[in-house]
Amino acid sequence: MEQNPPAHYDVVIIGGGPGGYAAALYGASAGLKIAIVEKDKVGGSCLHRGCIPAKELLESASVNRTVRHAAEFGVYVDEPKIDWSVTVDRKQRVIDQMWGGLKQLLSGRKVDIYAGVGTLGPSHQVNVVADDGTSAVLLGTAVILATGSVPRTIPGFDPDGRIIFTSDEFLDLRTLPAKAAVIGGGAIGCEFASTLADMGTEVTILEGLPKILPGCDKDAAAIVERSFKKKGMTIRTGVSVTGHTPRPDGGTSVAFGEETLDVDIVVVSVGRAPVANGVVADGTGVSVSERGFFEVDEHCRTGEPGVWAIGDCIATPQLAHIGFIEGINAIKDILGENPAAVDYGKVPWAIYCHPEVSFAGYTEESAKEAGYEVVTNKHRFIGNGRAVILGETDGLVKVIAEKRPDGSGGKILGVHMVGPWVTEQLGQGYLAVNWEATVDELAALIQPHPSMSELFGETVIALTGRSLH
């Protein structure tokens, strides 16, 4: 791995997660000579310890849920027996398949991958140190920092992979617990809680804020909370977790306020911390904020000319698809193509618990806080033919629009969905928000019947002042 003189590249990327590999593939397709420095495996947390494995476990939970309700469709089977170790093995096969495909893609685009820890020094020099102590020096005309994030922890809850888990350890859990506490009711916490509950675990969510899924529209969050409680989950909001005491017979007792909760495992899901400190040596213009993020402008440019930072290591939504677009835009900027800055208030969000949640744009509350006079409409899946056929009627579509003088809707400000497969249905709502479409323009579009996407169309039609249902 040792190279002397230094290897020169058009772009050196530190970090091979979604932002890093998207930048590499996009830049290589434009003819740039690219190197990725990755200390673990290309694909990053999303592929190996996040998005992909978590959704595979959720899909296994969905299969179990479907089998349990098969008699409603006239299909009679024995009570399903769960072997969680098989699920975990399948999860790993999915990861390995996608990892192999990604490595082939990068190799086919002639992207060089350096295994080791990369540190950016002055003059765009990147020093790479491998696990075996060997080193390499790379020089990039441009450098992209895409170092990602790691799970946050809380005092007194150090992960051990036995009782206390973060997302990293949870995804390798081999045996399902009888009782679990999930600390944190955000997107990741709700996905883990949903998985466990659908597999038969008794789940309690402990959330410090007044409601689960903070940031979601209140109507969507309320439906998820109601659905979770119907599954038998306990949800405690507005509580502060202070510690835990392991029990001699296994498991632990979690303390919050004046109460305690006995569980077999605790899943800590309180967000992710950026990996930025220690990535850049002295002598550059790259700076790190008090919160630990690389400081960038609206185009992801750092204070060092020719150096960009993207993905979870900057203070933008920590979503894989945000890393993708930031990586692509960084390459466009390097090529002098002047890409438009991302409007982070309009990006698509997807939460894969059951029921699913997706949204783009303003919530009803945030639109009012921004000074808009709004009109909203909601249609529920219980009236949708395809949802009734599927037996998945819990949920709704809510559209927020700017209010016209006659009381009808004008420009669409936000689209919020909760229910069956809404993560796959958000596309037209996301486009509507970002293209600043009006309800009149969208109401003229034809939705296929029967389909769950009809619900979006009917919600928009209602905002014109007339409705079907």
Which helices and strands appear, and what pairs or packs with what?
Elements (H helix, E strand, L loop, with lengths): L6 E8 L3 H12 L4 E5 L5 H6 L1 H18 L15 H25 L3 E4 L1 E4 L4 E5 L5 E11 L3 E3 L12 E2 L1 H4 L8 E5 L3 H12 L3 E6 L10 H13 L3 E4 L3 E6 L5 E5 L2 E5 L1 E4 L3 E3 L32 E3 L10 H15 L14 E3 L4 E6 L2 H6 L4 E7 L4 H6 L5 E8 L5 E11 L7 H8 L4 H5 L10 H10 L6
Parallel strand pairs: 1-2, 1-6, 2-3, 6-17, 8-15, 9-10, 9-15, 10-11
Antiparallel strand pairs: 4-5, 5-6, 7-16, 12-13, 13-14, 18-19, 19-22, 20-21, 21-22
Describe the structure.
The protein is α/β, with parallel strands linked by helices and 469 residues long. The protein has three domains: 7-150 and 273-344, FAD/NAD(P)-binding domain (3-Layer(bba) Sandwich), CATH 3.50.50.60; 164-270, 3-Layer(bba) Sandwich (FAD/NAD(P)-binding domain), CATH 3.50.50.60; 355-463, Enolase-like, domain 1 (2-Layer Sandwich), CATH 3.30.390.30. It has helices spanning 18-29, 44-49, 51-68, 84-108, 167-170, 187-198, 218-230, 320-334, 364-369, 385-390, 427-434, 439-443, 454-463, and strands at residues 7-14, 34-38, 112-115, 117-120, 125-129, 135-145, 149-151, 164-165, 179-183, 202-207, 234-237, 241-246, 252-256, 259-263, 265-268, 272-274, 307-309, 349-351, 356-361, 374-380, 396-403, 409-419. α7 links the parallel β10 (202-207) and β11 (234-237). The radius of gyration is 24 Å and the shape is globular. The chain starts with 6 loop residues before the first strand and ends in a 6-residue tail after the last helix.
